Amino acid sequence: VQLQESGPGLVKPSQTLSLTCTVSGGSITTNYYYWSWIRQPPGKGLEWIGHIAYSGSTYYSPSLKSRTSISRNTVFLQMNRLEPEDTAVYYCYAAYYNQHGDLQYDYWGQGTQVTVST
Q1: What is the pLDDT of residues 72-86, one digit of tens each?
Q2: What single string gives the DSSP state of each residue in 34-70?
């Protein structure tokens, strides 16, 4: 599975961010795959944003839930009301679990820089 993020590199404060994760070599609906967005602000650790499961169900970080949505159309991330603190490298991440819930494989995209600034 290969993942490729794409989207605008620069977004103004209060605007909406839209990122696409293009998946190749696999299907978003394949059983037991979970497709996540993760970000890393400059000088900080990784922050999980949310995921969409193979079934279409979604789950979000409580701190971002009110302004984030992920849809299965190419694992599309939409985040509203951006602030400078949202500046980060955004990664698409895929994880495959077996029937017992054990992680079997995972894949990362190369990441895309998003800067929130006027």
Answers
A1: 878 899 999 999 999
A2: EEEEEEE-TTS--EEEEEEETTS-EEE-TTTGGGEEE
